[in-house]
Amino acid sequence: MPTQEERLAYNQRNIDEFRETGGTLSDFGDGPVLLLTTTGAKSGEPRTAPMMYLADGDDPDRVYVFGSNAGRDTDPSWVHNVRAEPTVIVEIGTEKYDADAEFLDEPRRSEVYAIQAERYSAFAKYEEGTERSIPVVALHLRR
Questions:
Q1: Half-sphere exposure of 41 toward its Cβ, with a 13 Å CA cutoff?
Q2: Structural domain count, the chain
Q3: Is the whole model's pTM more than 0.90, yes or no?
Q4: CATH number at residue 110
Q5: Residues 69 and 59: beta-carbon distance below 8 Å
C-alpha cells in the first residue's frame, strides 16, 4: 500500500502529464479523463484530482465522475470536499470550466454507474470490492 506522500507524488505526476498533453494520461489508456479541482473542506486550499468521467449523452454541459477510490471502503477525499463545497473547477482537454456538483440519488446513481462499469470493467471490480455505495457526481459545466 503506497504512503500518502507516494500517492500525492503520483497524483501530481498525472496532473502535470494531463496539462502537458492537452488532456490525456498514459495510465488511463484511452479512457476519458478530467481534472477536478475542489476546495479542501478543512484547509480551504484548492485540491486537484485526475479521474475518468462519463459524458452525458443528452446534455453536453454535464459529465459524471465516480467516487470509486479504486474499490476501497472509504470515499476519496474529493468526495468529502465536494459535499462541503459543491462549486468546483473542471479541466477537460485544454478547456477549464467552473461547475456545480450534484450527488445523484437512487435509482439514477445506479443507472449511471452501470453505464460506466459496462464501458470500463475496472469500475465493476471497484463496486464488487466494497460494501459502500460508490458516489456518482454530476458536474454541471458553466460554459
A1: 11
A2: 1
A3: yes
A4: 2.30.110.10
A5: no
